[in-house]
Amino acid sequence: MNPASNPGAQTLRTEALSKSFGSFAANSDVSLAFQPGARHALIGPNGAGKTTFINLLTGGLAPTAGKVWMGDTDITHLAQHERVKLGMTRTFQINTLFAGMTVLESVVLAVSERRGLQGVWYKTVASHQDVVDEAMALLATLKLTAEANTVTRSMAYGKQRLVEIALALATQPSILLLDEPAAGIPSAESKELFEVIAQLPRDVTVVFIEHDMGLVFRFADRITVMVGGKVLTEGTPAEISADPRVKEVYLGEAEHA
Ligand SMILES: Nc1ncnc2c1ncn2[C@@H]1O[C@H](COP(=O)(O)OP(=O)(O)OP(=O)(O)O)[C@@H](O)[C@H]1O
């Protein structure tokens, strides 16, 4: 992918990003960078501010202070759809429309939308063979080829999450943000889900929030630990697992529970 035509391929970073709800600081002075191609996990106890931070990245929330950069472009005040055009996207739960469609129909629709073919009835769109080919290639990436003609709603939750990721990838992102992708699915399925996520092409940077430390340490190559709305530390899985402050945070949490 050519970085000049896709600025999202450049480093996504934040500079002293803060978000308050009234007098409560959900994020304070968060300065982070996500290197292209990374599998970067955001971890931390409940209420640490991880989801708030992802929402600040996507434009779902406006920061109280600080900046968000994609390469040299200040995207702090861009709308969500403008950030998607720059290559940053997140998954959304399959809505009622997609739930009634087959996997292939859903992905064809998402690819058509990106290509500006929205509003064209599916059957007409399906006559564009290149759209169908692109959708099938995405299904192959997500190991969903065998399910192409299955109705999305009838699939196991883990597979539905993969369809949600296929829909996000249809926007051709260089940065994919995943907020607890394995939440609510059985552990055998979540391992499978992460195996597919880990094997996504390296021109897609993946930033994910995950509570299951087994999955985090198996699939992340970079980990940021947030506590109380701030970054406690960041490093490789080996550095994070050896950090006594991290152990303290999680031990403290366990004792509390
Ligand atoms: N819209 C809002 N209004 C007020 N407070 C909010 C709002 N959104 C989040 N908060 C608060 O900000 C804090 C951080 O929430 P956030 O969801 O970002 O944490 P998190 O690290 O993602 O937690 P979890 O792991 O439990 O999902 C929480 O105390 C939450 O109650």
Automatic annotation (TrEMBL):
UniProt-listed CDD domains: ABC_Mj1267_LivG_branched
Pfam families on file: ABC_tran, BCA_ABC_TP_C
ABC transporter domain sequence ranges = 12-253
| Keyword Iron listed | no
Q: Which GO terms describe its cellular component?
A: plasma membrane
Molecular function, one GO term: ATP binding
What keywords are annotated for this sequence in UniProt? ATP-binding, Cell membrane, Membrane, Nucleotide-binding, Transport
Q: What is this protein called?
A: Branched-chain amino acid ABC transporter ATP-binding protein
UniProt organism field: Massilia eurypsychrophila
